[in-house]
Amino acid sequence: MITALVVALALGPLPSPADPGPSAGLVPPQPRDDDALTRLRAAHRARPEDPEVAAALGLLLYQRDNASPEARSLLGPVAARFPERHDVQLALLDAHLAAGDAAAASALLDRLEPELDADERFALDTTYCLLGRRRVPEARTQWSRVATRVQEDLNAASGQTLGPEADRELKRRVGEVLFVQGLLTARLGEKDEALELLGRADGLGFPPLDSPLMMVAGDCLYELQEYALAAQAYREVVNHAPEDPEARLRLGVSLFSSGRRSEARDELEQVLRQDPDYPRASYHLGELLLEEKQPEEARRCLERELARDPRCVPCMAKLAHIAYLEGDDRGCESWLQQAAALDPDDQETNLVSGMLETRLGHYQEAIQHLTRVVERRPGSIRAQFQLAIAYQRSGDPERARAHREIYDALIREEKARTLGVRGSED
Question: What is the pLDDT of residues 214-240, one digit of tens each?
Answer without folding.
Answer: 999 999 999 998 999 999 999 999 999
